[in-house]
């Protein structure tokens, strides 16, 4: 698997590549996606570095982003206590109970991590996450997270705008959707080894967005939360955060991003198509076949999980930012 590629490849490269070419290539990669340079970049399987001379630890990079944001909090919500956000999780790769992910991910090692961006793009890339973190403008975003199971949290994420990443690979004009894939590694993820532990999902977990949804300024790639790098159970080291959609769209531990011209298959839709649609926009007027979506239990600091029941808002309260994406669509049909 490519997870091991960086270490194996970095040294041989500097050893066998003539120095001038090596330097030139590093400069080109620094420019990240500069036209003409792309042909020198490896396709898939090798981690492309774009060193900015920044050797900071990921934890320090995340901390430094805390007082920066392009999008200030859009609501006056109290944060969910960190202890709850990192212990009440859905991450079926580690088991289906809410406390399984924290218990079963202790051995999970997300370092080093690389991920691929390919499909309908000018040049596919495999990127090393440490380099991406050093290069991207990291910021903190406070977002609501509304699970389709009718509980919700308010979480301070640290990361970067998804569009800033996607723009770099120059999608082809034929690209209309973006597909995402979680790591497949049954040795580290017990839910992938056993259908009983993993809830009957056919792994790897996959998700998708229409291109205009992916490019919306709210679409966010998180590498941290509460001022720290992401814990394994919350999707280390890199996960999507889409605050106007049900939580299952916010796919964790991403290893591949692929541009396509057809709507990509998505895990929960495959599992139960009449209950979980491709769009999965938070919508208090479209109930889940087995329960109401009109209200939700906000997990706050009251009691063990928080007892406050509040009304669910259309698009989870982000309508001003995203409603235009769906203006001619019947959202009862495209749920
Ligand atoms: N790979 C993967 N991503 C996933 C899930 C999962 O089981 N596997 N669960 C989803 C669901 S249902 C929710 S509500 C959120 C939960 O994120 P959190 O545990 O960080 O609160 O992650 C989403 N991303
Ligand atoms: Mo969820």
TrEMBL record:
The keyword Oxidoreductase applies. One of its GO terms (molecular function) is metal ion binding. The keyword Lipoprotein does not apply. It catalyses: L-methionyl-[protein] + a quinone + H2O = L-methionyl-(S)-S-oxide-[protein] + a quinol; L-methionyl-[protein] + a quinone + H2O = L-methionyl-(R)-S-oxide-[protein] + a quinol. Its EC number is 1.8.5.-. It is an enzyme of class 1 (oxidoreductase). InterPro entries: MsrP, OxRdtase_Mopterin-bd_dom, OxRdtase_Mopterin-bd_sf. Mo-molybdopterin binds at residues 89, 92-93, 147, 182, 234, 239, 250-252. Part of the MsrPQ system that repairs oxidized periplasmic proteins containing methionine sulfoxide residues (Met-O), using respiratory chain electrons. Thus protects these proteins from oxidative-stress damage caused by reactive species of oxygen and chlorine generated by the host defense mechanisms. MsrPQ is essential for the maintenance of envelope integrity under bleach stress, rescuing a wide series of structurally unrelated periplasmic proteins from methionine oxidation. Belongs to the MsrP family. This is Protein-methionine-sulfoxide reductase catalytic subunit MsrP. The lineage of its organism: Bacteria, Pseudomonadati, Pseudomonadota, Gammaproteobacteria, Alteromonadales.
């Amino acid at each position: 698997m490519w997870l091991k590629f960086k270490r194996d490849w970095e040294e041989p490269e500097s050893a066998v590549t003539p120095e001038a070419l090596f330097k030139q290539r590093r400069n080109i990669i620094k420019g990240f996606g500069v036209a003409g340079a792309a042909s020198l970049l490896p396709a898939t399987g090798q981690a492309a570095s774009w060193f900015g001379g920044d050797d900071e630890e990921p934890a320090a990079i995340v901390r430094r982003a805390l007082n920066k944001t392009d999008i200030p909090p859009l609501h006056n919500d109290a944060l969910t206590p960190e202890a709850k956000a990192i212990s009440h999780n859905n991450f079926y790769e580690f088991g289906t109970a809410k406390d399984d992910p924290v218990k079963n991910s202790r051995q999970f090692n997300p370092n080093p991590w690389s991920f691929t961006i390919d499909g309908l793009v000018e040049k596919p890339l495999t990127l090393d996450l440490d380099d991406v973190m050093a290069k991207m403008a990291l910021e903190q975003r406070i977002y609501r997270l509304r699970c389709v199971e009718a509980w919700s949290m308010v979480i301070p994420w640290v990361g970067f705008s998804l569009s800033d990443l996607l723009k770099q690979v120059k999608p082809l004009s034929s690209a209309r959707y973006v597909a995402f894939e979680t790591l497949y590694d049954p040795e580290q993820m017990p839910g992938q080894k056993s259908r009983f532990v993993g809830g009957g999902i056919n792994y790897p977990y996959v998700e998708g967005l229409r291109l205009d949804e992916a490019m919306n300024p709210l679409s966010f790639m998180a590498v941290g939360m509460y001022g720290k790098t992401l814990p394994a159970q919350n999707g280390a080291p890199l996960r999507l955060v889409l605050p106007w959609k049900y939580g299952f769209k916010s796919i964790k531990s991403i290893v591949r991003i692929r541009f396509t011209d057809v709507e990509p298959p998505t895990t929960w839709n495959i599992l139960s198509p009449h209950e979980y649609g491709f769009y999965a926009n938070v919508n208090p007027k479209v109930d889940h076949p087995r329960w109401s979506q009109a209200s939700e239990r906000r997990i706050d600091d009251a009691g063990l999980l928080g007892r406050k029941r509040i009304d669910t808002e259309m698009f989870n309260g982000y309508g001003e930012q995203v409603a235009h994406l769906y203006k001619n669509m019947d959202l009862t049909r495209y749920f």
